Structures are given as C-alpha cells and as structure tokens.
Amino acid sequence: MNIHEYQGKEILKSFGVSIQEGIVASTPEQAVEAAKDLQAQTGTGWWVVKAQIHAGGRGKGGGVKLAKSLEEVKEKAEEILGMTLVTHQTGPEGKVVHKVLIAQDVYYPGETDTSEFYMSVLLNRQTGRNIIMYSTEGGMDIEEVADKTPELIFKEEVEPGIGLQAFQARKIAFNLGLSGKAFKEMTKFVTALYNAYVGTDSSMFEINPVLKTSDNLILAVDSKVNLDDNALFRHKDYEAMRDLNEEDPAETEASKSNLNFVKLDGNVGCMVNGAGLAMATMDIIKLSGGEPANFLDVGGGANAETVEAGLKIILNDPNVKAILINIFGGIVRCDRVAQGVVEAYKKIGEINIPIIVRLQGTNAEGGKKIIDESGLKVFSAITLKEASDLVQEIMA
C-alpha cells in the first residue's frame, strides 16, 4: 500500500528520523494557516508547497514550488490544488492533486555548503536479505544514475536475523564522504531509517533527497513509502492512511472482494485461481494474438460470489473484447466454478462479449458439461490448446 509523502514523514519521525517539517492542507486558506503554524514552530520564513500524489517526479511536473511569502503560499497552493499532475510515474493521464504539503525551507538562503544523497531500504529477493541502497547523487532519478554512473550507487546488505550493525551505518556515512558532526548525524539517520523500515513491515522506504544542511544536520526532505499489505493487520493505524483517490477504482473494488487485481492495457480479460496460472494465462493470450487486459487471481476458494465480482470488474473495462476464465480444480471443484460462472452470468444480465472457460482438475468433465448445457454465450475448454484456439478464433 502506497502512502503520501506527509504520511511517510510522520512514520519516519515516530522512529526518530529527522525530517523536513511540514503540515498538510486541502485548500489555499488551510495552506496559509499551515504556513503560519510552521513559521511559529520552526522559524522558517520561506515555504515549499508540494503536491501530494502517489508518484515521483512531482517537481519536474510543476508540483513543487517555493513560496517566499504568505501571499505566495496561497498563490502556489491555488495553482497546484486541483491540477492534473503528469509525471514519468503517473503516465500521460496524470493524477489530480487533492492535498498539498506546506514544508519548511531547509535550503537556507545564501548557504551553499549543502549536499543531497539518495537512500532506500528494501528486500533483495535474490539473497533474502534487506538492502540499503544509497548514492551521493541525490535529487536525481536513481534509474538515470544507475544507467550512466552505476559506480556511484552503493549497497549494504543486512541480515534480517541480526539487524543493522553500527559498523555498517558508519560505512554508509563514510562512503557518502561525510565527517565530523555530519558523519555522526548520518549514522543515527541510517539506523533510525532501518528501524522504521523493519518496524512498519514495509516493502520499501525511499528518501530522495536526504539533505545535509549547511549546519551539518541530516534530514529526510522527501519520502516514498510502500507498506506491505499482508502485514496491515498488525498496523491498523497505517491501514487508515490508505487514500482511495490515488488508486485505480477497479483495483479498489477488487480488494473489497479479496481479489488480486491489476489493470493492464489489453483487450482480453482473464480470471484464474493462482498467480502462476495467471502468468501462464497471460502468455496464452499473447500467443493467441490478443493482449491481456488484466491480472485477476480469485484464489483457491473460487465460488459464485467471487466469480460474479470478478466478471463485473472485467466487464467495466470498455477495451475488453473477450474473457478467458482459466481454473485448475485442486482445492476448488471445477463443477462448482462452472455453476458459479452460469449463476454470475445470469445475475449480471446481458453480456455482449464471448467468455471462454477452461477447466482442468477435479470434476473438470462435469464442469464442462454444465457450461455446454447452460445455453449461454460461454465456450468451454479442457486443455490449454483448446482455450488458446478459441481465443485466437474470437480475436481473428
């Protein structure tokens, strides 16, 4: 689950990570009041108005602006709130900005002795260890740094059973070229950041940039946090941070029915039980001349309700020209899935696109018979080749 920058900073601060202070606002008037409060708290005379969307590259898209007076705070907030912000991570459709973060200006006027670093914590799935990635080239797209100057990206792996050791935090500060107070502040920053990553059961923490100020403080100026959905039952307060405005409506609807759904750009909808089977099904669709319109895994307990919910979500996509339901009957019986398809079809009403149901496993023959005798516009298949041929015939 992705969260906003201001929410990520709240979490970081609770674990002792030093941050660029800020207050979130939803209107220009709230933005001005936030700026006043922030000035009283921190003494800042300039403010940064930052669009809050689940995407990077906001500055390049015009979603981050410096304000040097309260009048400018209101003016910049008016410009950003309600705009459709397009970045390299939003796609061409962009995202509408509903909130702005009014942050203190930590780049002190006239001071030049500052440095920006990149830092992230995530899981290295190849080694099964957590890894801290960091670079002296902060404030830039890390993909660009990796492509042009990979030698400037450092990696420090951490054994989960042991945790981050003090010598590793010192090594990171040393590789970033720090000394004195800044060196000590960075070691504390790295340790607190790693503790936040582990303590929140996150999939990723990314800070770009991490700022060394002219007075040698180390601050998180940005934060991109992805929380592990599977661990949210342990963090109800974090689950409440979910912003449905930032999510695809179809994916939100799917989550209500405990369906694993990802929208794609193709023309053949697919519904399966199992992530591996889903990948194979998308391959079948590609080989048959179509393009998968989604990834939809109904899990091992597929029934009439989940099938109906899945079909409704797929049918809401106007680009879908056919649907392939590919079920392996292990835990679930194929005849029950087939009956669920028939019941869902009747409940939904008129469906104007063909549905191919491929059943294999427990009671597959019985499931095929139910489909064939239903009288509905549903085609049955037992083998992958039969399903592939039907998709190819329909897409021709």
Automatic annotation (TrEMBL):
Residues 2-210 form the ATP-grasp fold succinyl-CoA synthetase-type domain. InterPro entries: ATP-grasp_succ-CoA_synth-type (IPR013650), ATP_grasp_subdomain_1 (IPR013815), Succ-CoA_synthase_bsu_CS (IPR017866), SUCC_ACL_C (IPR005811), Succ_CoA_ligase-like_bsu (IPR005809), Succinyl-CoA_synth-like (IPR016102). Residues 271-386 form the ATP-citrate synthase/succinyl-CoA ligase C-terminal domain. Substrate binds at N273, G330, I331, V332. Coiled coil: none annotated. Its cofactor is Mg(2+). Keywords: ATP-binding, Ligase, Magnesium, Metal-binding, Nucleotide-binding, Tricarboxylic acid cycle. One of its GO terms (molecular function) is succinate-CoA ligase (ADP-forming) activity. Pathway: Carbohydrate metabolism; tricarboxylic acid cycle; succinate from succinyl-CoA (ligase route): step 1/1. Belongs to the succinate/malate CoA ligase beta subunit family. This is Succinate--CoA ligase [ADP-forming] subunit beta. It comes from Carboxylicivirga linearis. The gene is sucC.
